[in-house]
Amino acid sequence: MNEKLLGKCGFYCGYCPTYLKDGCKGCMDEHQTGDCYTHDCVLEKGISCCGACEQFPCDTILTKPHTTVLDKDWLQWKKESHTNR
């Protein structure tokens, strides 16, 4: 796995059809400050990806549209089950 292709939301860009068709350069090369909440948040906190955050899953990724490609039902279960602590 190429770590440069691990999106800050946790999605592996290397499996994305858009990336594979040369329609995207991957999370780190494609996004600029201000166009992706999760990208900005992760870089601001100095962590590798959203799942590495102590607050994961936070209320923002549970409620704000387009902050993650992760399944919202799974994120809610994760938050309620406390299995991330």
General description of the model:
- The chain has 85 residues and is mostly helical.
- It has one domain.
- The chain has five helices and no strands.
- The longest helix is centred in the last third of the chain and has 10 residues.
- It is globular and about 40 Å long.
- The protein starts with 16 loop residues before the first helix and ends with a helix.
- 16% of the residues are buried.
- The model has no long low-confidence stretch (mean pLDDT 86).
Beta-strand residue fraction: under 5%
Which structural class should the secondary elements be placed in?
mainly alpha
Instruction: Please tally the β strands and state the result.
Output: 0
Distance between the termini: 26 Å
Helix proportion of residues, in percent?
25-40%
Instruction: Tell me the number of structural domains.
Output: 1
Q: Which word captures the global form?
A: globular
